[in-house]
Amino acid sequence: MRIAVVAPSCSLKREAADAVRALVTDRGDCELAIHPQSFLSDGHFAGADQARLAALLEVMADPAVDAVWFARGGYGSNRIAAAALAELPAAARDKVYMGYSDAGFLLAGFHKAGLDVAWGPMPQDIVRSGGEQAVNRALDWLVRREASSVESDVRPPAMAFNLTVLSNLLGTPLEPDFAGVDLLIEDIDEHLYRIDRTMFHVTSSENVRKAGRLRLGRIGNIPENDPDFGRDEESIVEEWCNRSGIAYGGRADIGHDAQNKVVPFPLENR
Amino acid sequence: MRIAVVAPSCSLKREAADAVRALVTDRGDCELAIHPQSFLSDGHFAGADQARLAALLEVMADPAVDAVWFARGGYGSNRIAAAALAELPAAARDKVYMGYSDAGFLLAGFHKAGLDVAWGPMPQDIVRSGGEQAVNRALDWLVRREASSVESDVRPPAMAFNLTVLSNLLGTPLEPDFAGVDLLIEDIDEHLYRIDRTMFHVTSSENVRKAGRLRLGRIGNIPENDPDFGRDEESIVEEWCNRSGIAYGGRADIGHDAQNKVVPFPLENR
């Protein structure tokens, strides 16, 4: 199992790369190839759009690569997602892709193009407290489809998205078909009024309304609302589900944290 | 000219109400009726949804009211906009509606329903430095359609939106038709990476792509991007216009500030 790491959004930290390399050496069940592009820096991004796109297409086209693991989130994969799909290499269909947060733009578009994608922890997560567990959870799934890595209440077909990323991909060419999908959402660093506003937007979508159910992962690090918002994230999500006729499926075990689980997207031949 | 003030989003401050009342008395050319709902408080909002909706419908239905002036933005008008339109009183068509920021949800939906709406300063703006000028600019337009209150480069038909509000109303029943529209945007308190992400979303819309041109108002109080984003708000907006084939029309004189100008939305009989 050869796993290629590229950074379509923000730069991978050297200390995270070193720690993941050491962990992979200890495991001894896979080979890790961290693309040098992962360490580039161009303003907000891990290199200019062209550099990020070229590295992504290179690993997608490499028949020796079994899995493409997105180095980290941040912001920026939406800027190159459509271009990557426009030049889709044949070998891209023989691998699996994993990431979360901003990488959701790629998960959505790649899934729509028929590629095999999964929501799950990324290399940069190793610097979190408990991060080694998160990275091992991702690798256990990538290497041997370890069932305990997968979110335990998932009812396939399932998808998972950062709520803000989901909101920003609706109406774009990256928007997948949510019909019958167990749709898991999570977010971080968003005020409750923003969660409410984004839920209004997302649950107004006729496509999202076709989801089988909607489940709420963790909303991390919520900034203080002034004045107090008056309700919590679960009542917000439940209310918009009720308003829009989407079944609310309760809490989900995903989030921007070391406990984040894997959610494999549907694939016809899985 | 009787102007009713209601607060579909957040509460109007007493000191703002007092200052606007004093200014209107000095002007002597209009009558101001600040609805008591404007001062309610329920968590984040100026009263619960039902209280905000009832006050809004009450002034819309009142034949003695010539103009409905939204007290302030914040967040929350999207929660009652569709309900207000579902029960649209007959007298609602004989008045003009003004506001900006979060009130954009109402401007969009009301315009779509054939009502006469305009982007412009709100009562709460009076507490800004230079705020009396902003409030007088709004009143000059409401009372006598003063031409100098209007954004000077507007090419009718025009619309103006807070960029984040615009992003969150796409795909909802509030989304208006942008065909041929001079579309002005502005924002506040948003990181540059968020502006970039929102521009990706907004300019992916086939409807927005039909706009005559897109013009950039002021992006106020931009939080520091870590690392530095590497480009400014105008190059971000210009790039997404270029990518999506929308004509970029340069800067616009709107924003969350005392200089904010009026942008009347198109009305067939104007």
Mean pLDDT rating of chain A: 97
The largest interface is: A-B, 32 and 32 residues
Q: Outline the low-pLDDT stretches of chain A.
A: none
Strand order of the largest sheet of chain A: 2-1-3-4-5-10
The biggest beta sheet of chain A reads: 6 strands, mixed
Structure in words:
Two copies of one chain form a homodimer. Chain A has 270 residues and is α/β, with parallel strands linked by helices. Helix content of chain A is 33%, strand content 17%. The first copy, chain A, contains eight helices and ten strands. In chain A, helix 1 links the parallel strand 1 (2-6) and strand 2. The radius of gyration of chain A is 18 Å and the shape is globular.
Which keywords apply here?
six-stranded mixed β-sheet, 270 residues, alpha/beta, four-stranded parallel β-sheet, homodimer
What is this structure's SSE topology?
The structure is a homodimer of 270-residue chains.
Chain A (H helix, E strand, L loop, with lengths): L1 E5 L7 H14 L3 E4 L14 H13 L5 E4 L7 H9 L9 E4 L4 H9 L3 E4 L11 H14 L13 E5 H7 L12 E7 L3 H12 L9 E8 L12 H12 L3 E4 L11 E2 L6
Parallel strand pairs in A: 1-2, 1-3, 3-4, 4-5, 6-7, 7-8, 8-9
Antiparallel strand pairs in A: 5-10
Helix pairs in contact in A: 2-3, 3-4, 6-7, 7-8
